[in-house]
Design goal:
Length: about 70
């Protein structure tokens, strides 16, 4: 009976105290640790130009627009 009581006590402590200690540590870190003051500057986006595709005779057979490519060709 004594072993059963110790086992139940250990399970209760593990199931209740450990999650509470972990949650309180995370909450304390969010409240008391310094956060970054500002965000880094945004990088400029790449302006993609229209790229035209020609066949061997010089006739235009297609084109890539801004939504087709993200880097200039």
């Amino acid at each position: 009976m004594r072993l059963l009581g110790r086992s139940v006590f250990l399970i209760v402590v593990t199931a209740v105290v450990v999650p509470l200690a972990g949650a309180s540590t995370v909450l304390a870190a969010l409240l008391f640790l310094p956060l970054p003051a500002s965000l880094p500057q945004a990088r400029p986006g790449v302006e993609a130009l229209i790229s035209r595709i020609y066949d061997i005779n010089g006739n235009e057979i297609g084109e890539f627009r801004q939504f087709d490519t993200t880097k200039p060709v």
